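Repro:
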Amino acid sequence: MNLESLNQRIDQLIELGQTVLATRRTWAGSSSEYVDSGKIKGFRSATLSFIERVYGQDHSHYKEFNSAVNGFSITDAEAGVAILHAIRDEIAGGWLFSVKGLITAEIFADFLEMSEYLLKNGYKDPSAVVAGSVLEEHLRQLCTKHGVEVELKSEDKTRPKKAEALNSDLAKAEIYSKLDQKMVTAWLDLRNKAAHGKYEEYTTDQVTNMLSGITEFMARISV
């Protein structure tokens, strides 16, 4: 889900919340207000599904919405819309991708360390596969960050783009240079050789250069 589609979905949910607020009524003989119970349940379900998909159930946004929108009073509906506005401002400010980038960087660093360990212990082939897989996932994360499609869609199915297609699209979008594109192509080619058992077509030194190059590239072109 790219930034544009995230914002579109949030706007849809905010509009849904406004529709719920439009059903406000006052209890007979009381000043307390309530909204349509069926509509707010639909609003709650749709919004929790969205927040879980973007942030996960352990995030404060999910917990706050789950707690605040748990009935059919007017305050429940108002709180839900307010939380959505806060999420929209957060995403528009780039905070979502910044946090995800930090988490992703830590995970990638662990796998690159694994690749380096394998290489130092004489396992150039699995080292190349691990490093190349980290690179491919980094390309996907870059695409998501910059709104570049990561899937090919046809009438009957959707399938993920191959790594080289992601590389080409990122270069076309000027996320990085043509020189970077050529280096990424070479690294992906080496990874494919390792993954398909063509072990004699590359050397330990080439894997060493690949690993250091990928590490530098990912630090420079970060998520």
